[in-house]
Amino acid sequence: MPKRLFLIRHGHTVWNGPPHRIQGQFESDLSDQGRKAAQDLGAQMRRPDRIVSSPAERCLQTVDCLFGATPDATDPGLLEIDLGWFCGLLATEVAERDPAAWYGWRHTPARMRPGDGETLAELQDRFVAAVRTVHNGMRDDECVLIATHGGCLRTLICYDRDAPLDIYPDITMDNLTLLKFEGERIERGAVGLRRVAADEFG
Fold this sequence. Notes:
Oligomer: single chain
Largest sheet: 6 strands, mixed
Distance between the termini: 11 Å
Helix content: 25-40%
Number of strands: 6
Order of helices and strands: EHEHEHHHEHEE
CATH architecture: 3-Layer(aba) Sandwich
């Protein structure tokens, strides 16, 4: 059986709103809604051979709700984008403080360093490298799940499609979105990502 690599966005958090508070690399807990949804999803999935997670608390809590387990490893390369001073604020508060910065982040994000934090290109580079490390370390018959963040997964989809990062805001990425890697290598334009349901996991 070929190796199987899946990626999942964490569950709904207390900052996912309402009201929506910008998380970035700030910590937040899963909401009651997020915990229940992750538990319900986990009931349809078998535990993978190995779990690698972002060290963010919301990802660790998602793994616990899915499988009643802790990750086998964490990797800071799987963390969400660093949004600098945007973090912890409401969108309206960012827009009031710096309207041009907020407009740029919403409409031309690839040209921005949001909140003087991290660019999308920097996020994409470190996240793709972290995923490639996991993939390269897998056994031929192994099933591995990566628990990570919506921003990370959006940049990976752009990489898979060889698409500009300015489409980042247009990519839908609900909490607990599950992606499957179906390529042979992690390379631009040929990652082979597909959104899958829980019954396709494993």
